[in-house]
Amino acid sequence: MKNLRKGAILVFLSILVSYSSGARLRSSCNPTGKIRGENPPPGQCNQENDSDCCKAGDYYTTYTCSPPVSGTTSAVLTLNSFQKGGDGGGPSECDSKYHSDETPVVALSTGWYSGGSRCLNNVTISANGRTVIAMVVDECDSTMGCDKDHDYQPPCPNNIVDASKAVWKALGVPEDNWGDLDISWSDS
Questions:
Q1: How far apart are CA 25 and CA 17, in angstroms?
Q2: How do residues 147-162 score in pLDDT, each as one tens digit?
Q3: What pLDDT does residue 116 have?
């Protein structure tokens, strides 16, 4: 009888561990692949705002998802110019327009962009003891990169809020610290 009870307890514990591991896997966001970089044609990768350019032979991780969105989702704020000729490449996905660096706008990693479901909606970004509201105008593509359409830049990581200079200014970040900043954000 004792062996039967021990066996039942072990079965129950292994089911519990298996279920909880599965739940963790379902709520995580794992890489979906890699793309191989090629050197961009001369003068074709805009390195404004310290943007990276793909390098021949390097592999870049791709994602189709982003971490789950909560009331305050952790992310990394990066700098992007949405102006014509800026390092953002072409016009914004949401409205096919360029946006001034003085306008608080952002691009979200592919999973958070969610097929455009957040287009032209506002998000609230908090960091440095301040908060700013910015409009989503573009996708920071986590699935593709290293080509002309992506200004020969690598795919975005899956946790990026790519922001205009106006967002950085509103957060009170000194210009010499612009680039990468840990933030939290939420839908407004």
A1: 12
A2: 888 888 899 999 999 9
A3: 98
Residue 164: closest CA among 90, 73, 86: 86
Mean pLDDT (the chain) is 86
Question: Closest Cα partner for 162 from 100, 91, 104, 102?
Answer: 104
* Residue type present at position 32: T
Residue labelled with tokens 């407004």: 188
CA-closest candidate to residue 54, choices 171, 147, 126, 146:
146
Give the separation between CA 157 and CA 112, rounded to whole angstroms. Answer: 11
Strands (E), the chain: 33-36, 59-62, 73-79, 105-109, 122-127, 130-140, 160-163, 180-187
Beta strand ranges found along 32-103 (DSSP E): 33-36, 59-62, 73-79
pLDDT digits (tens, 9 = 90+) for 111-121: 999 999 999 99
Amino acid at 47: Q
Per the DSSP assignment, residues forming a β-bridge with 86 are none
- The DSSP bridge pattern shows strands 33-36 and 122-127 to be unpaired
Whether the per-residue pLDDT at 22 is higher than 50: the answer is: no
Q: Rounded to whole angstroms, how far apart are CA atoms 118 and 35?
A: 27
Mean per-residue pLDDT, 44-70? 88
pLDDT at res. 9: 41
Instruction: Count the Cβ atoms, other than its own, within 10 Å of residue 166.
Output: 18
